[in-house]
Amino acid sequence: MARLTANSYGKCDVRLTKVVRTGATHTLWELTASIILTGDFARIYTNGDNSPCIPTDTMKNTVYVLAKKNEFGSPEEFGVILASHFVGRFDHVESDEVSIAQKIWTRIPAGGRPHDHSFSSAGSGRRTCVVKKTRRGPPRVSGGLAGLEVIKTTGSGFSGFLKDEYTTLQETTDRILATSIDAAWDFLPSASPDYNAVFETAFRVIPETFATHESLSVQQTIYAMGEALLARVPDIATVSFTLPNQHRLPVNLSPFRLASENEIFVATSEPFGLIKGTVARE
Amino acid sequence: MARLTANSYGKCDVRLTKVVRTGATHTLWELTASIILTGDFARIYTNGDNSPCIPTDTMKNTVYVLAKKNEFGSPEEFGVILASHFVGRFDHVESDEVSIAQKIWTRIPAGGRPHDHSFSSAGSGRRTCVVKKTRRGPPRVSGGLAGLEVIKTTGSGFSGFLKDEYTTLQETTDRILATSIDAAWDFLPSASPDYNAVFETAFRVIPETFATHESLSVQQTIYAMGEALLARVPDIATVSFTLPNQHRLPVNLSPFRLASENEIFVATSEPFGLIKGTVARE
Amino acid sequence: MARLTANSYGKCDVRLTKVVRTGATHTLWELTASIILTGDFARIYTNGDNSPCIPTDTMKNTVYVLAKKNEFGSPEEFGVILASHFVGRFDHVESDEVSIAQKIWTRIPAGGRPHDHSFSSAGSGRRTCVVKKTRRGPPRVSGGLAGLEVIKTTGSGFSGFLKDEYTTLQETTDRILATSIDAAWDFLPSASPDYNAVFETAFRVIPETFATHESLSVQQTIYAMGEALLARVPDIATVSFTLPNQHRLPVNLSPFRLASENEIFVATSEPFGLIKGTVARE
Amino acid sequence: MARLTANSYGKCDVRLTKVVRTGATHTLWELTASIILTGDFARIYTNGDNSPCIPTDTMKNTVYVLAKKNEFGSPEEFGVILASHFVGRFDHVESDEVSIAQKIWTRIPAGGRPHDHSFSSAGSGRRTCVVKKTRRGPPRVSGGLAGLEVIKTTGSGFSGFLKDEYTTLQETTDRILATSIDAAWDFLPSASPDYNAVFETAFRVIPETFATHESLSVQQTIYAMGEALLARVPDIATVSFTLPNQHRLPVNLSPFRLASENEIFVATSEPFGLIKGTVARE
Q: Which residue, B7, B109, B112, B197, could crosslink A277 as a Cys pair with Cβ 3.0–4.6 Å?
């Protein structure tokens, strides 16, 4: 009467710290990896037959072992190593998906120069990537960033929108725009991208476009950031953005006989707008 | 050179409290709703033309207005009202998706009976639903629950699993199993389900099955819960589960010359296993 | 030029799961313990002399070892065991403070009765205790609860308050009152309290008083809960409450030509009122 | 039988955004303020007499009105304005305490220079201050920082510590040290500090000292940071630190026949060490 129609499993939030020592200068990787497998696992569910079950504890160990055995220069590279491992080793694994988030540390300035082995947190953004691997074909790699908090105090408006009897929002040509940018980009099949160069460009171009774009809506800002990224990184095929609109609402000061001069605002946690868009190279 | 290939937007985490007074006895709804629209919105992104843009602030207002204007007896019913509104009113909206989470309050016992208008939080679980509506066809409704925390101190094992040189996990026929259950169910096209009766059955049968099932794996427990739910609720077509394995690891007491007798454990936040499965009626 | 004028250290958030088997019926303890020591530790800071330093890792181990070696029937009892250990064993420890939070699990109903070994989360509240021990004198024990979420849809008002030119709040004799109760109680020096009986009474009387009290303010509700607890538990000397006012604001429906009938509200995360009060037995 | 022996109340997490326009260049303040009052409020609790009750909603309004009416150049200055308001205006307020956390935004680089009105999140640290004001005497101001995440991959050890039979921690002369620094400093009564200059010095000197100090323990690092700050800022009287030890544990690779070379670690969320110390000018 019952049938298992879909299944997958894996290990989430494996926290890896790797220190690479090049003389006195250390490189620090702090990655959080999640691995999800699909494959011929149905009888684990239906028959209690664990023989095809790769324990998620083994997946965790594998992250540490592969991090030890392999040099890598980017989260994407490590993601490819991890994703290739499971489908490469186990015939009954049909596909796996590895998601990695990298904490971005920056060298602490000390004595006028970046310190060799001491770091502080660099802003709110994380570097992210997802690698999907099936039994056939090369791994599909996407790079990204998440949680990059930005705000602009002018150069943003929202007017000319559709109104009905439930609309109370006032039109404005000058508002605060605040958000936390998530972006993910795919590469052209023909590309051999330098993942770090791509990330660094994106991490610079996306907030710079946010800063300089005269925004008529969050939607338009997304498109402008997408256009700018495609223009600057020829290897990128598509880029997808997800941006919450983290409202800063003007405080009504009229009960206190004070003019509202676009000066005093309240930030609200919820509700929030959520705007998504994908921009592709034509 | 650039082209918008996908887009959607909406309002998230609209918090609605509705009090329904039936004489002295009050019914309390605390819902958090999110609305995502797709449709003919591209020129907002590409041209800065906001004329088709329904402000997310209007969506928020609409939640409150429709909650005021309509009686409803379940989150699913309110979800249908909301989801039907946007595609019904705006020709350029092609589909919308409304997700609702309900905080579950229980009446405080006072003077030997449940209180008329005072409530306390009832466990960790939330009631959830998702309603999707396109321009054509009826709304598609799924019910669910989320964050239902359960634990069993025996009646769970994990052995006979695949081993390779990266496996260090010991087999066990007696372990603690702890998880936080997320489940979502779809209905048969022919069904006219009583959403509340379905939820109450699921909210009872799922933890009861967790309790009594002799578990060989989280996967097998998922299948057992799915089978039990399908057996008890004829209107359900499929049910999907997502269960983190919230590990309780035996503490190694041998350095202290104490026997480990499956008695002392440490709970870990991460990493965690994540097991998914969908069970369908045949 | 510099001098160390205060110091303390310890281990926080040690997560302990203990299963006690009485035949087929299991008792489950899930405690999170924190230990803070004060004593003759200054030279660790000033001289890098670690000889008096009890590693926090040892404190963690001690939690597990003492949980294994000792039977206990309440978090307070285990707190006394833990707090007595450090000042009892190490002459240079002057005092320690042990804080424990217990996750409250309830037996899952199965087959018409509470299950032997399977549990679900019971509401939002946690049981808490703090035990302070100095070299001299008995341990000072306080019991408590935290995070007990309650809400009432009437039987609460707020009027007659002080007004100045910055006041815009409307008086009301009928509002929603929602909060998350934290309470901590101390015992009379002469008492030999049954910690579990006290907790169970508090966990019942406090929400019951919240439910039935006709509230003129959060402050008055605090006092009423304190009075009720003191009246019901002779061993308690004082009880302190901390209550956030988790506002439910009436939604202004007048732009939509709908009457506001104390029916539709929005819950806000912040800002929130915070009200504290201590009630003592005279 | 019952008596109110302590009470206080106020408003927490009032989120203020203030934009100051100096020509094209905007200054952005994002502050979260909490206000707690003590005074002659007992009859609110005991008698339901709200006549002395300043609504917390009025406190919230006051934050926005005073932010509008006053120019300020630091959170400390605004804290003094706020704290002075309540005891200055209401005779029955005996003291108030204002706590402020400032989100640190940094100008986005655009076209080779910091942007006029667009900002991104600058690291994990927040700027904090607490201002306490009683009816008599000047406000007492402390500055601080919170959540400043730092990590060093060498230059840290922990050895020579006290051992007992519950100790399993290995001594090490080379470990990772990771923490999130909270610091708060008080000023000499004679000082007229430049709050911004003090903060900027602290925000530079504290992580720099963390970076360059050869640490024998978290405790010793705290003392070193305190000494350095006192040496660099003559106006500071005392500085208190609270540092979690955010462990990075070496992964045991011996089951995989791999040497552990201080290279592969796991970060754990809990338990964590917590180390506190106050360093005063002699």
A: B7
Compute the distance between CA of residue D226 and CA of residue D277 in angstroms, rounded to an integer: 9
Domains and CATH numbers, chain C: 9-138 (3.10.270.10), 148-280 (3.10.270.10)
Chains that touch C (3 or more CB pairs under 8 A): A, B, D
Report the C-alpha gap between B118 and C206 in whole angstroms. Answer: 12
Task: Tell me, yes or no, if A56 is annotated catalytic.
Answer: yes
Task: Give the ipTM.
Answer: 0.96
Residues B143 and B101: beta-carbon distance below 8 Å:
no
Peptide bond into D244 cis (omega under 30): no
Q: Give the residue ranges of DSSP H helices in chain A.
A: 42-47, 56-69, 75-89, 195-212, 218-232
Q: Are D141 and D131 in contact (CB under 8 A)?
A: yes
Q: What's the rounded Cα separation, in Å, for the pair D90 and D62?
A: 13
Residue A170 DSSP symbol: P
Please state the pTM of the whole predicted model. Answer: 0.97
| CA distances from residue B282 to A1, B78, B234, B236 in whole angstroms, order as listed | 5, 30, 12, 11
Chain C residues near residue A268 by CB distance under 8 angstroms: 268
In angstroms, rounded to a whole number, what is the distance separating the alpha carbons of residues B210 and C107? Answer: 12
Position C201, amino acid = T
| Residue C115 contacts B, CB cutoff 8 Å | yes
CB neighbour burial string for A12-48, b if at least 16 within 10 angstroms, e if fewer: bbbbbbbbeeeeeebebbbbbbbbbbbbebbbbbbeb
Pick the residue of C163, C257, C258, C270 with the most A CBs within 10 A to test the interface with A by mutation.
C270
A34:B274 CB<8 A:
yes
B221 vs B183: CA distance, rounded Å: 13
Catalytic entry in D32, D38, D56, D134 = D56
Hey, what are A50's tokens?
A: 């664990």
Residue B79: both structure tokens together:
């979800």
Q: In terms of Cα–Cα distance, which of A160, A182, A153, A180 is closest to A246?
A: A180
Residues 8-67 of C with CB under 8 A from B: 15-21, 26, 28, 30, 61, 64-65, 67
The beta-carbon neighbor of C166 closest among A168, A256, A270 is A256
Catalytic annotation present for D22:
no
Asked if residue B206 lies in contact with residue B162, where contact means CB atoms within 8 angstroms, the answer is no
Cβ pair D53, D44 in contact under 8 A? yes
Secondary structure (H, E, C), C43-59: HHHHHCCCCCCCCHHHH
Distance separating the N- and C-terminal Cα atoms of chain B: 49
Task: From first to last of the 282 residues of chain A, give the pLDDT tens digit.
Answer: 899 999 999 999 999 999 999 999 999 999 999 999 999 999 999 999 999 999 999 999 999 999 999 999 999 999 999 999 999 999 999 999 999 999 999 999 999 999 999 999 988 899 999 999 999 999 999 999 999 999 999 999 999 999 999 999 999 999 999 999 999 999 999 999 999 999 999 999 999 999 999 999 999 999 999 999 999 999 999 999 999 999 999 999 999 999 988 999 999 999 999 999 999 998
Indicate the residue of D166, D256, D268 with minimum beta-carbon distance to B166: D256
Count other C-beta atoms under 10 Å from residue D147's C-beta: 14
Tell me the residue type at C115: H
Chain C environment of A168 (Cβ under 8 Å): 255
Q: Is the C-alpha dihedral spanning C123, D9, B15, A247 positive or negative?
A: negative
Beta strands per DSSP E along C23-112: 25-39, 93-110
CB-CB contact of D265 with A19 (8 Å)? yes
**Annotated catalytic residue A247:** yes
CA–CA separation, C142 and C128 (whole Å): 9
Place of tokens 């100096």: D22
Phi, psi dihedral angles at A20 (to 5 degrees): -110, 125
Determine contact, residues D185/D199, Cβ cutoff 8 Å: no
